[in-house]
Amino acid sequence: MEHNTGTTEQVWRLHVGSGPLVATAVHDGHEVRDEVAKHLALNDAGRLREEDPFTGDWAQAAPTRVVGLRSRFEVDLNRPRDKAVYRTPEDAWGLTVWKDEPPTEMFERSLAEYDAFYSAMRELFNELSEQHGHFVVFDLHSYNHRRDGIDGPAADPEGNPQVNIGTGTMNRKRWGGVVDSLIDTLRSFDYPGGKLDVRENVKFQGGNWPRWIHENYPDTGVAIAIEFKKFFMDEWTGQPHADHVAAIGEALKFTAPAVLEALKRA
After folding, report:
1. Which domains does the chain carry?
2. Residue 165 near residue 224, CB atoms below 8 Å
3. Alpha carbon distance 106, 263 (integer Å)
4. Which of 74, 69, 70, 68 is nearest to 97 (CA)?
5. pLDDT (tens digit per residue) in 197-235
6. pTM score, two decimals?
7. Cβ contacts of residue 75 below 8 Å, gap of 6+?
8. d(CA 256, CA 250)
9. Is residue 124 a contact partner of residue 12, using CB atoms and an 8 Å limit?
């Protein structure tokens, strides 16, 4: 069942399937409202570099999927509400987001979208908790590793794993078996060119979205932030390496049975 939901236009897409596994791609979106576009200093390519393209495709790994349709530069669903709209360069990796001072009303409309999203997610997770007793969320993201320019060196792999598993806000003691099953199966997947480098809490520990899930569903919900380094694409041009994009999607699907089995035992 597909639901396109928002306050004024479509802000996210929700597909409800069977079972307790959910995949979310809250930074997949690239579009912005017309009133936001009028004030943006960043061009399309500048926005795309900090967004998470292809994560919406990878969400197919789960029966229930939530995919953001709007750019994080309109509203960032993975930040606390008071930081969900970028107002200064400090909010956005030093980038100058706005060419002027947008009206407060514009930001308020973006925050209304934020509120609508979290309200709908509460409804979804309440239903999953009631139906299944528990649920697991694959919180899908990607991250840059060539910040020194298109011809610059890649960041040191030691501190930048191909897959960073963020578990900083969960009760690791309660949900450890679920996390370990995900890490183990991702590492064992027959990835083209060699096994994936999968490590926990090296680059990121997870954002506000998993934090909110763990605070509101401490006994029933576990959200695992899964950040793929952008080795699967050119982060400066936006061009994907199609074989890698497809293989990552297959790797995530490969993990699902083991993760669901571990969830039963949690």
Report:
1. 2-265 (3.40.630.40)
2. yes
3. 42
4. 74
5. 999 999 999 999 999 999 999 999 999 999 999 999 999
6. 0.95
7. 11, 84, 85, 110, 111, 113, 114
8. 10
9. no
